[in-house]
Amino acid sequence: MNPPRRHPSGSALLAAMLAVALVATLSTMALWQLWRQVSLQSLQQHGRQSQWLLLGAMDWGRIALREDARAGQVDHLAEPWALPLAPTSLGRFLQPATGATPQAAVPASEDLWLSGQIMDAQSKFNLYDLSLGQPAAIEAWQRLFAHLNLPASEADAVVAQWQLARQSMPSAPLLPQRVGQLSWLGLSSSSLARLAAHVVMLPSPSTLNVNTATPEALAAMSGISLTQARRWAMQRQSTPATTLEQARQALGLPATAPSSKMATGLPPRDLRLRLRSVKRQR
């Protein structure tokens, strides 16, 4: 006679299920750790790669400005340095050469785009003079608001708050260090968006380059009408001013008008670069 079969007890089944669950959990954790290490290595690689690309682009900008300085003392928007670098795909340039390490290339699922522009830092109204409370700068600031159809009350509020901030009182607002921080002085976000293209915050006094200045900034600084400034902006595309006297005549300024805030070249530049990674759609 055959002995009766013994069915596995419930505790044995539970132990087996726990063992399977433990193995699955450990496997999942191991895979997650592996994925995390690969992701971190990829991010570090992309960071180093982006840094080298941006450094190379900055070197290109320095060379362009050095050659421009050798070419002459006049700067205008028709020169090579003023041409923006349109978004350019770098994926095909970064593929490894024959025999190179495959990890040095851009992943097949991504594409890198580089864009940039060299901008004249003296093509805008410098807020440094306004921060000192100079009467001429305050008048130019008010004219700039009028040309941009911005509330005059905000222009006055910014001047008042700026003077208060310079007094270092406990209740005084913080001194802005960038254009975007003008909101600390009571400037609305909509006004700041309109104003950002026409103002700059430099660490020292500067002149305004009549060959590159925005029409609104030029009209505000010189006191001419916005129509005159726009007419000159069209004219300077073909015949930029090479001397302050030419600029004075082109703008219709009287011979007695002060020109200490005007210039025709050799300003500081602002190099802006952007490196963007885009996922390729399959």
Provide structural commentary.
This protein is of the alpha/beta class and 282 residues long. It has two domains: 17-119 and 273-279; 125-266, no CATH class. The chain contains eight helices and seven strands. The chain has helices at residues 10-71, 127-131, 135-147, 152-165, 189-195, 215-222, 226-235, 244-251; strands at residues 85-89, 110-120, 125-126, 199-200, 208-209, 262-263, 269-279. The protein has a three-stranded antiparallel β-sheet with strand order 1-2-7, covered by helices on one side. The longest helix is centred in the N-terminal third of the chain and has 62 residues, at 10-71. The protein is elongated.
How many DSSP E strands? Answer: 7
* Residue windows where pLDDT falls under 50 for at least 5 positions: none
- Helix fraction? 40-55%
Major β-sheet strand ordering: 1-2-7
The helix/strand order is HEEEHHHHEEHHHEE
Structural class: alpha/beta
List keywords for this structure.
2 domains; 3-stranded antiparallel beta sheet; alpha/beta; elongated; 282 residues; two-stranded parallel ribbon
Task: Produce a short descriptive summary.
By secondary structure, the chain is α/β, with parallel strands linked by helices.
Explain the layout of strands and helices.
Elements (H helix, E strand, L loop, with lengths): L9 H62 L13 E5 L20 E11 L4 E2 H5 L3 H13 L4 H14 L23 H7 L3 E2 L7 E2 L5 H8 L3 H10 L8 H8 L10 E2 L5 E11 L3
Parallel strand pairs: 3-4, 5-6
Antiparallel strand pairs: 1-2, 2-7
